[in-house]
Design the sequence.
């Protein structure tokens, strides 16, 4: 397992902030050689502090390993020439400038692909390259515009953003998927192509059952706190000391839950005989479950219910989530030249996932990359 699945591929990464750098880090972890092209001021996330480690933003550190950095000023003719040479050599180029923003530099897909027809060119935007091309692509804007915030929070409270830039991350993953699909197409045909993804389309896809409820069922979903619109129980329930996530995703799990809670008599009640019935009668069923759960601490219930095959679990802080993964043998943290980082979540039976290079300092590899670009022949 000395090779990565994407060994031998060169990625010219002209992206910054989150969606693009996350996509290229995933691909770099799988073996691709990623050259991170930054402006002389560097990727914005370098300055997003606190928190930091040794003066470097942990935001930047979390999404930029396994890359080499070169700082290029497109207003400088020599730097722009090197940027074009890099695009001409690359297998993949990824960018998240405003749609059309690279055209004046001759780094747009139409121009670059004339010299490099095998290039897979991935563009990430906020709202697409059509009528929304001029709109700024920030995750929070898309959380609001897509409807996610209308679904997040208490039913009688204000809308909330998700705790992470969820659509930046999802769009980055969609970009990586699109790139890999285009690679397969190139393998079959020898031709590259332009891959486009945008935050709003990714958001509407990621809202899955909620967007489906609207477009297929004519239902506009609404905030329900921690409750699920189509399942019950599927939420935190109070115990003697703290809340515990309790899930009955099907009738069999609900039967097990009732037996473990000493509530087997509920199984003969038609109001709870199916998931649809339980969901419609959640306001009747919930207090019956809570009354029994309050008799013992959450940890005791967790052990008993888990042993019975009932999905349940604690509500952790991030440190607890990492600790749980370690306890389960998932090895979530990897040391990258003395920098602890979260491991790439993918494992392979025949190829390796690498965690070799720490996130680069600005222009850390500029000299060697300039020399290579000057010597290389597109």
Sequence:
């Amino acid at each position: 397992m000395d090779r990565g699945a994407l060994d031998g591929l060169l990625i010219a990464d002209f992206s910054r902030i989150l969606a693009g750098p996350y996509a290229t880090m995933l691909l770099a972890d799988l073996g691709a050689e990623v050259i991170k092209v930054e402006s002389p001021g560097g990727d914005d996330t370098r300055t997003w502090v606190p928190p930091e480690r040794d003066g470097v933003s942990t935001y930047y550190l979390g999404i930029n390993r396994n890359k080499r950095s070169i700082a290029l000023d497109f207003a400088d003719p020599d730097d722009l020439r090197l940027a074009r040479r890099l695009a001409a050599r690359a297998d993949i180029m990824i960018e998240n400038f405003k749609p059309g923003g690279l055209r004046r530099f001759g780094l747009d897909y139409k121009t670059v692909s004339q010299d490099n027809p095998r290039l897979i060119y991935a563009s990430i935007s906020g709202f697409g390259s059509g009528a929304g091309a001029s709109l700024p692509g920030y995750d929070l804007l898309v959380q609001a515009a897509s409807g996610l915030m209308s679904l997040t929070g208490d039913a009688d409270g204000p809308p909330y953003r998700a705790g992470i830039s969820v659509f930046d991350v999802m769009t980055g993953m969609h970009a990586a998927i699109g790139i890999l699909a285009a690679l397969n197409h190139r393998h079959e045909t020898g031709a590259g192509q332009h891959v486009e993804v945008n935050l709003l389309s990714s958001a509407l896809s990621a809202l899955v059952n909620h967007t489906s409820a609207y477009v297929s069922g004519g239902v506009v979903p609404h905030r329900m706190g921690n409750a699920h619109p189509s399942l019950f129980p599927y939420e935190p329930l109070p115990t003697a000391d703290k809340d515990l996530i309790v899930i009955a995703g099907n009738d069999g799990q609900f039967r097990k839950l009732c037996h473990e809670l000493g509530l087997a008599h509920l199984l003969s009640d038609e109001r709870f005989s199916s998931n649809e019935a339980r969901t419609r009668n959640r306001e009747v069923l919930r207090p019956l479950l809570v009354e029994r759960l309050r008799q013992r601490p959450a940890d005791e219930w967790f052990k008993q219910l888990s042993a019975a095959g009932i999905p349940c679990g604690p509500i952790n802080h991030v440190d607890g989530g990492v600790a749980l993964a370690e306890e389960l043998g998932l090895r979530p943290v990897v040391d990258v030249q003395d920098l602890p980082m979260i491991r790439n979540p993918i494992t392979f039976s025949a190829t390796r996932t690498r965690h070799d290079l720490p996130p680069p300092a600005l222009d850390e590899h500029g000299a060697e990359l300039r020399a290579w670009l000057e010597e290389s022949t597109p």
In short: The chain has a mean pLDDT of 97. The chain is about 40% helix and 15% strand.
